Amino acid sequence: AQSVTQLDSQVPVFEEAPVELRCNYSSSVSVYLFWYVQYPNQGLQLLLKYLSGSTLVESINGFEAEFNKSQTSFHLRKPSVHISDTAEYFCAVIKAAGNKLTFGGGTRVLVKP
Amino acid sequence: DAGVTQSPTHLIKTRGQQVTLRCSPKSGHDTVSWYQQALGQGPQFIFQYYEEEERQRGNFPDRFSGHQFPNYSSELNVNALLLGDSALYLCASSSRTGVYNSPLHFGNGTRLTVT
Question: Distance (Å) from the C-alpha of residue B103 to the closest C-alpha of chain A?
């Protein structure tokens, strides 16, 4: 079975400051990794994913995440946040050839002006 | 192009009652998954349907059941409601090539409150 731990439940950050959201996973088999974002009163939207290849993946809105197999981590970073980045962020894994996502508990990001 | 639509958006039920939640997948998707998101937690997988059959199931009791129709829409049924069933229920659709090739598209969810 897979498990995902998001080490921070809440991260307050000032506008234009950098942010890092930590995600560690546990699995006995190969997995694929995802970050989802959930804005208030909405469903989840895929932010970025790692399937294979370059360990650094980027999203269209400035987020990036790095897959570190030795540390079983997939931390999410953004060098400069905007007010509109206020949301909850979920890290998730799926085993290769699987169909079930396992989510972490989420990290709530509050961007302050 | 409509995305994943869920109905109703909110629902209040009493302990012991039964509830049915509905989901229409994104156009072109044939697979529907249901997730339960309790307050302050990440979503937890309930089950997945394609070709009108339950293909995979998470760690949920038999009180949770589902159905998929020929048009790929789906229902989630919960019997004998408990207070702990209060949560946001999310429907997600994808194509059968797998969630890693075809990202899950989530609906906005149904907020179920059990009193």
Answer: 7
**Local confidence pLDDT in tens for the 113 residues of chain A:** 889 999 999 999 999 999 999 999 999 888 899 999 999 888 899 999 998 888 898 888 899 999 999 999 999 999 999 999 999 999 999 887 777 899 999 999 999 99
Residue tagged 């987020």 (tokens):
A63
Pairing of strands A102-103, A44-50: unpaired
The span from the CA of B25 to the CA of A92, in Å, is 21
> Please, are residues A100 and A32 in contact by the beta-carbon 8 Å criterion?
no
Task: Say which of B43, B55, B106 has its CB closest to residue A99.
Answer: B55
Positive or negative: CA dihedral A22, A27, A30, A35: negative
Question: Rounded to whole angstroms, how far apart are CA atoms B20 and B3?
Answer: 20
**Tokens 């995440």 correspond to what residue?**
A65
Reduced to 3 states (helix: H, G, I; strand: E, B; else coil), residue A85 is helix
Residues of chain A in Cβ contact (below 8 Å) with chain B: 4, 6, 32, 34, 36, 41-46, 49, 51, 90, 92, 94, 96-97, 99-106
pLDDT in tens, A35-59: 999 998 888 999 999 988 888 988 8
Rounded to 5 degrees, φ, ψ at A55 are -75, -10
